[in-house]
Amino acid sequence: MRIAVLTALAMVAFAANSVFTKIALVETQIDPITFTAIRLTTGALVLVAIVAVQQKSWTFAKMGGSPGGALALFSYAIFFSFAYLSLGAGLGALILFASVQITMILWAIYKGERPGPIEIAGILLAFGAFVYLVSPGLVAPDPLGTALMILSGISWGVYSLLGRGSKSPAHDTMSNFVRAVPLAILIVIGLAFVADIWPLDMKGVLFATLSGALASGIGYAVWYAVMPKLARTSAGVVQLTVPAIAASGGILFLGEQLSLRFVLASMLILAGVALATIFKKSR
Length: 283
Description:
11 helices, mainly alpha
């Protein structure tokens, strides 16, 4: 029961990132770059505190992660923020999720993995539904926002691939957040010279802090704590709930409407990924 509750909390936290970001960028005056810098900084502070408590020391023998991981993390976060200038919370979460999964599937195939017939059917179903979701039309998502979220998903896919096999994912994630902070702050300083971003919108700062400290920092810490206790299939399938939770948050807190295209594409993408995930692990 405890594992189920913690798993659910982690999924809600991940979905909350989409809702917090959308609220901040639509209902406040904070810009995407400053939002990202605050999110990464507060996330880093919380993760440092959590890892210090876990290790019972504020002195870390060495940094984990990698510069490449930090760059992939920063790329994911900055593209994510800019994408939400024009995408709904649920739609953005679905595009992100699909992009991450497709990136990792294509990489596995490139590295020589040969999926079985049912896996192939699931991959084709998910990919076809994704193309349907983002294809031009009267109810198609904003092209620029879609492209940015796809880049965010690819970045997170790369981040996941770089961290695959990590023996201490919480420590590595903390280290990558810490490495990404200076880059974000430098960009904000540069922005301050060319744009009027002061004084900061305090409501926007609050949501950026919630996104970083709560949805990112604590969310990742909880997920990494429960993930080893879940079967690999369960760990993959449970993440299918994130787009649905984000869509629910968008409806409740932002008054977003669900289009028929979104509902159909969501069902097909999630069904395809579920098939590919379950039969890959069983095989």
